[in-house]
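Treating backbone geometry as a discrete language has practical consequences that deserve illustration. The sequence in question and its structure tokens are set out directly beneath this paragraph.
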Amino acid sequence: MSMNLTLRLFAIFMIATLALSSCVSKKKFDQLMDEKGALASSLAESQGKVKLLEEKVAALETDMEAEKTRLNGEIAGIKKDLDAAKGQLASAKSDLQAKENEIATIKKTIKDAFAVGSDVKVSEVEGQMYVTLDEAVQYRTGSSSLNKPARKAVDQLATLMKNNPNMHILVEGYTDTDKYPAGSGMDNWQLSVNRAMAVVKRLIKKGVDPGQLTVAGGGEGNPVAPNDSADGKAKNRRTAAQPSPKAAPIYKIGN
């Protein structure tokens, strides 16, 4: 074989080898490019998801801060209302204590005025003061005249009122359920007022300032006993004295 032929064959072999090598490298390159594109697409998708999630987190954080601000404002408002309520409670307790002290003073004044040895006795029932007589004070049916024991009780009340010019009482008269005859021009409302007026006139006669007195008639209202017997009706024919203000205890003339 000549040298020229050998060189030719070698050249052909090298060209074929390079051609084959070039073909394999391009296929691998294209595959790599495809893989790169897929990875790039996947990366972009992941980046999009990350961005979306970051935006959601930011939105939630904003909402959380807004809700926190709202709740803090609501809590502040509740605390303010609570402080105001505590202040009102403290004021109410103070007012109540002052009223209890005032009532205690009135009770002591009454008890001291009607001391042991007096014909009038003082008792306290459910926070109310009652002035009663050893002997029952009763009105006759249809009458507003005070009997002797009643006049004595009113006179002692007059002494109490004169010694305590700041005391004011509401004098109330009551009746039983017996009716006046039709056309008589009288009824139990008027009779109850007349009974209260009898007490007030006696108090004024004994020197009590009329400005300390108020008159009212309760008619058949507020019975202290059933009106189905003579004894019950006698107990309901009565006059009571109630001090002002209404929060104070009650005095009662009779039983």
Q: What stands out?
A: The chain has a mean pLDDT of 79.
